[in-house]
Amino acid sequence: MEYTYCNIEDYSNWLKEGSEWLAKSEKMPNKNFILKNHQCPGDILMLSACIRDIKTWYPHFSIDIETSCDSIFDNSPYITKLDNSDPSVRLLDMQYEIIHQSNQDMNKHFIHGFIQDFNERTGNSVKLTQFKPDLHLSEDEKKPVFNNQPEKFIVLNAGGKTDYTTKWWWKEAWTEVINLCPEINFIQIGKSDKKDTGAGKATHSLIELPNVLNKLNKTSFREVIRLVYQSVGTLSVVTSIMHIAAAFNKRACVIAGGHEPWWWEKYPNHDYFHSIGALDCCRLGGCWKKDCENKSDAGKQKCLELIDPKKVAETLRSWF
């Protein structure tokens, strides 16, 4: 399959052919927008791509944000501070309704969702220009986060949100993978409790092994972004750090199972372990269940039992 995005040649052609609608857009009453969304960081990362592409196609628009994770937009050249009481400013509660057709439409990725929503609600014609979220680091942020971090490492996120336990891989599987990679250093991030930090509750199992540097409860989200930038890649379930990895063209090993259709989440250059098509519960797409309804006698999700830790470890070793 091919994702819908534009390359440089397409982009140049659209700019040339679009001179009329660009001139028309400059006469539109709404040029100032505050885009709002208070979902999880992964959702806000998708919004960052939308904002980049709005400004690419409509550079005369002014865009501000109100989100659950505004630090994602630190250093962004695309954000302009706007007053939400200004009558010239339009507030949009951003959604991605195409998720409801994700099992059927293999040509749409998560990253297309907010762009389509913006176009439908404003009458504009924004198109995806880069198949990745948009993140910007200062030169200082590119320096190591921790004094004791290794030169080469993988960022490990061994857990997930408490309201989507279907996506959780078990501690024994994470441990087996890392035991099979003794020459690889890992930095574990996340939370060891179920505290809600504003984007939902999550918890992560501490992996106590010699090649794992424990940084649970020791990073801000901005520091997680920095660690991914400095890493070789990431190891996680379907969660925000895989999207951060995509933003920086980093490798990612994703334990996905059958919760989401792979075409909704996967990026080029990512190793995506899924079970779509292997079981009746995810035969034609993701089950999208918060709690798994198809568990083995061991009480584990069957779709995740199909993922072999040895294959995952082999993939990680191939990165080095």
Element-level helix/strand string: HHEHEEHEEHEEEHEHEHEHH
Which strand-content bin applies to the residues?
15-25%
- Separation, N- and C-terminal Cα atoms: 28 Å
State the CATH architecture of the largest domain: 3-Layer(aba) Sandwich
Uncertain stretches of 5 or more adjacent residues: none
Which strand order do you get reading across the main beta sheet?
8-6-4-9-10-11
Tell me, rounded to a whole number, the average pLDDT: 91
Total number of distinct structural domains: 2
Biggest sheet character:
6 strands, parallel
Based on CA inertia axes, which overall geometry fits? globular
Q: Which structural class fits the helix and strand makeup?
A: alpha/beta
Write up this protein.
It is built from ten helices and eleven strands. The protein is an alpha/beta fold and 320 residues long. It folds into two domains: 115 residues, no CATH class; 178 residues, Glycogen Phosphorylase B (Rossmann fold). The strands form three sheets. A six-stranded parallel β-sheet has the order 8-6-4-9-10-11, sandwiched between helices. A three-stranded parallel β-sheet has the order 2-1-3, covered by helices on one side. It has a two-stranded antiparallel ribbon with strand order 5-7. α7 links the parallel β9 and β10. α5 crosses α10. The longest helix has 17 residues. It starts with 7 loop residues before the first helix and ends with a helix.
